[in-house]
Amino acid sequence: MDRLKIVLVFVGLGISLSTFGQGILQRDGLSKMDQGAQAMYDGHYEEADQLFRESMNLLGKLPSEMAYYFGRNSYHLAKYKQAINWLTKYVQLKGTSGQYYDEAVLYLDRSNEAYKKIKEQEVHETENKLTTDGYYDCPSSYVMCPICHGGGVLIKQGKFGAEYQTCPYSGISGKLTCEQYNQYLMGELGMEMSDE
Ligand SMILES: [Zn+2]
Fold it and tell me: What pTM value is reported for the model?
Protein backbone atom coordinates (compact mmCIF):
# COMPACT_ATOMS: atom_id res chain seq x y z
CA MET A 1 0.00 0.00 0.00
CA ASP A 2 2.71 2.49 1.03
CA ARG A 3 4.75 1.44 -1.89
CA LEU A 4 1.88 2.23 -4.23
CA LYS A 5 1.57 5.69 -2.68
CA ILE A 6 5.27 6.37 -3.17
CA VAL A 7 5.05 5.26 -6.78
CA LEU A 8 2.07 7.51 -7.34
CA VAL A 9 3.90 10.49 -5.81
CA PHE A 10 6.84 9.91 -8.15
CA VAL A 11 4.58 9.56 -11.17
CA GLY A 12 2.82 12.78 -10.18
CA LEU A 13 6.13 14.55 -9.66
CA GLY A 14 7.39 13.31 -13.01
CA ILE A 15 4.35 14.61 -14.83
CA SER A 16 4.47 18.05 -13.19
CA LEU A 17 8.22 18.34 -13.80
CA SER A 18 7.78 17.52 -17.46
CA THR A 19 4.91 20.01 -17.70
CA PHE A 20 7.18 22.56 -16.04
CA GLY A 21 9.97 21.72 -18.50
CA GLN A 22 7.64 22.12 -21.43
CA GLY A 23 6.57 25.51 -20.06
CA ILE A 24 10.18 26.71 -20.08
CA LEU A 25 10.79 25.38 -23.60
CA GLN A 26 7.61 27.07 -24.75
CA ARG A 27 8.64 30.39 -23.20
CA ASP A 28 12.17 30.25 -24.68
CA GLY A 29 10.72 29.21 -28.03
CA LEU A 30 8.31 32.13 -28.10
CA SER A 31 11.03 34.57 -27.12
CA LYS A 32 13.26 33.24 -29.94
CA MET A 33 10.36 33.66 -32.33
CA ASP A 34 9.96 37.31 -31.26
CA GLN A 35 13.70 37.91 -31.67
CA GLY A 36 13.47 36.35 -35.11
CA ALA A 37 10.58 38.63 -36.04
CA GLN A 38 12.60 41.65 -34.89
CA ALA A 39 15.61 40.52 -36.94
CA MET A 40 13.34 40.08 -39.95
CA TYR A 41 11.84 43.57 -39.56
CA ASP A 42 15.40 44.91 -39.26
CA GLY A 43 16.24 43.25 -42.55
CA HIS A 44 18.56 40.59 -41.08
CA TYR A 45 16.95 37.66 -42.84
CA GLU A 46 19.68 35.04 -42.37
CA GLU A 47 19.77 35.75 -38.64
CA ALA A 48 15.97 35.63 -38.51
CA ASP A 49 15.99 32.26 -40.30
CA GLN A 50 18.40 30.86 -37.71
CA LEU A 51 16.27 32.17 -34.81
CA PHE A 52 13.04 30.82 -36.28
CA ARG A 53 14.56 27.37 -36.75
CA GLU A 54 15.86 27.38 -33.17
CA SER A 55 12.42 28.45 -32.01
CA MET A 56 10.76 25.59 -33.91
CA ASN A 57 13.10 23.18 -32.16
CA LEU A 58 11.81 24.40 -28.80
CA LEU A 59 8.11 24.93 -29.39
CA GLY A 60 5.44 22.26 -29.21
CA LYS A 61 2.71 23.07 -31.67
CA LEU A 62 3.80 26.13 -33.57
CA PRO A 63 1.75 29.27 -33.02
CA SER A 64 0.09 30.55 -36.17
CA GLU A 65 2.27 33.70 -36.27
CA MET A 66 5.22 31.42 -36.89
CA ALA A 67 3.73 30.43 -40.24
CA TYR A 68 3.47 34.11 -41.15
CA TYR A 69 6.97 35.03 -39.93
CA PHE A 70 8.73 32.02 -41.39
CA GLY A 71 6.81 32.30 -44.64
CA ARG A 72 7.55 35.99 -45.07
CA ASN A 73 11.20 35.55 -44.13
CA SER A 74 11.46 32.75 -46.69
CA TYR A 75 10.29 35.23 -49.30
CA HIS A 76 13.11 37.60 -48.33
CA LEU A 77 15.55 34.70 -48.67
CA ALA A 78 14.17 34.00 -52.16
CA LYS A 79 12.81 30.61 -51.04
CA TYR A 80 9.53 31.22 -52.77
CA LYS A 81 7.96 27.76 -52.68
CA GLN A 82 8.69 27.57 -48.97
CA ALA A 83 7.19 31.03 -48.51
CA ILE A 84 4.05 30.00 -50.41
CA ASN A 85 3.54 26.87 -48.31
CA TRP A 86 3.85 28.61 -44.93
CA LEU A 87 1.93 31.77 -45.84
CA THR A 88 -0.88 29.68 -47.31
CA LYS A 89 -0.98 27.74 -44.05
CA TYR A 90 -1.26 30.97 -42.09
CA VAL A 91 -4.12 32.27 -44.21
CA GLN A 92 -5.91 28.91 -44.02
CA LEU A 93 -5.57 28.83 -40.24
CA LYS A 94 -6.48 32.39 -39.39
CA GLY A 95 -8.63 33.51 -42.32
CA THR A 96 -9.29 37.21 -42.78
CA SER A 97 -9.36 37.75 -39.00
CA GLY A 98 -5.65 37.00 -38.67
CA GLN A 99 -3.56 39.82 -37.27
CA TYR A 100 -1.17 39.57 -40.22
CA TYR A 101 -3.75 38.70 -42.86
CA ASP A 102 -3.05 41.68 -45.15
CA GLU A 103 0.72 41.27 -44.99
CA ALA A 104 0.43 37.51 -45.44
CA VAL A 105 -1.63 37.96 -48.60
CA LEU A 106 0.77 40.63 -49.85
CA TYR A 107 3.81 38.37 -49.42
CA LEU A 108 1.91 35.41 -50.77
CA ASP A 109 1.20 37.35 -53.96
CA ARG A 110 4.82 38.48 -54.22
CA SER A 111 6.05 34.93 -53.65
CA ASN A 112 3.68 33.50 -56.25
CA GLU A 113 4.77 36.16 -58.73
CA ALA A 114 8.47 35.54 -58.11
CA TYR A 115 8.03 31.77 -58.20
CA LYS A 116 6.18 31.95 -61.50
CA LYS A 117 8.95 34.08 -63.03
CA ILE A 118 11.66 31.69 -61.96
CA LYS A 119 9.66 28.72 -63.24
CA GLU A 120 9.33 30.43 -66.61
CA GLN A 121 13.04 31.17 -66.70
CA GLU A 122 13.82 27.58 -65.85
CA VAL A 123 11.82 26.40 -68.81
CA HIS A 124 14.11 28.50 -71.01
CA GLU A 125 17.35 27.56 -69.30
CA THR A 126 16.95 23.83 -68.92
CA GLU A 127 20.63 23.53 -68.06
CA ASN A 128 20.49 25.19 -64.66
CA LYS A 129 17.50 23.45 -63.23
CA LEU A 130 16.38 22.88 -59.66
CA THR A 131 17.55 26.26 -58.46
CA THR A 132 14.07 27.43 -57.54
CA ASP A 133 14.50 27.02 -53.82
CA GLY A 134 17.71 27.03 -51.85
CA TYR A 135 18.34 23.75 -50.10
CA TYR A 136 19.29 24.16 -46.46
CA ASP A 137 22.75 22.75 -46.00
CA CYS A 138 22.63 20.66 -42.84
CA PRO A 139 25.76 20.77 -40.67
CA SER A 140 25.68 16.96 -40.47
CA SER A 141 23.79 14.19 -42.22
CA TYR A 142 21.19 13.96 -39.45
CA VAL A 143 19.32 16.80 -37.78
CA MET A 144 17.36 16.79 -34.56
CA CYS A 145 13.70 16.26 -35.39
CA PRO A 146 11.91 19.56 -34.62
CA ILE A 147 8.53 17.83 -34.37
CA CYS A 148 9.37 15.60 -31.37
CA HIS A 149 12.35 17.79 -30.33
CA GLY A 150 14.68 14.84 -30.69
CA GLY A 151 12.83 12.72 -28.14
CA GLY A 152 11.38 10.31 -30.69
CA VAL A 153 8.07 10.44 -28.86
CA LEU A 154 5.08 12.71 -29.30
CA ILE A 155 2.96 13.51 -26.25
CA LYS A 156 -0.64 14.34 -26.94
CA GLN A 157 -3.23 15.41 -24.41
CA GLY A 158 -5.94 12.81 -24.76
CA LYS A 159 -9.20 12.31 -22.92
CA PHE A 160 -7.47 10.17 -20.29
CA GLY A 161 -4.34 12.27 -19.80
CA ALA A 162 -1.11 12.24 -21.76
CA GLU A 163 -0.84 9.78 -24.63
CA TYR A 164 2.57 8.78 -25.91
CA GLN A 165 3.20 7.96 -29.52
CA THR A 166 6.41 7.21 -31.42
CA CYS A 167 7.18 10.18 -33.63
CA PRO A 168 5.85 9.23 -37.07
CA TYR A 169 8.47 11.40 -38.80
CA SER A 170 11.76 10.51 -37.14
CA GLY A 171 10.77 7.29 -35.40
CA ILE A 172 12.26 6.63 -32.00
CA SER A 173 15.70 7.93 -33.10
CA GLY A 174 14.46 11.54 -32.92
CA LYS A 175 16.58 12.39 -35.97
CA LEU A 176 15.65 13.43 -39.47
CA THR A 177 17.76 13.05 -42.58
CA CYS A 178 18.77 16.36 -44.13
CA GLU A 179 16.32 15.59 -46.93
CA GLN A 180 13.42 15.22 -44.47
CA TYR A 181 14.50 18.32 -42.57
CA ASN A 182 14.34 20.29 -45.81
CA GLN A 183 10.85 18.92 -46.42
CA TYR A 184 9.91 20.12 -42.95
CA LEU A 185 11.31 23.61 -43.64
CA MET A 186 9.42 23.61 -46.92
CA GLY A 187 6.21 23.10 -44.96
CA GLU A 188 5.69 19.68 -46.47
CA LEU A 189 6.32 17.44 -43.47
CA GLY A 190 4.71 17.32 -40.04
CA MET A 191 3.70 20.95 -39.88
CA GLU A 192 1.50 20.91 -36.82
CA MET A 193 0.17 24.31 -35.94
CA SER A 194 -2.03 25.38 -33.09
CA ASP A 195 -5.15 27.17 -34.26
CA GLU A 196 -5.80 29.06 -31.03
ZN1 LIG B 1 10.46 13.26 -34.44
Answer: 0.74
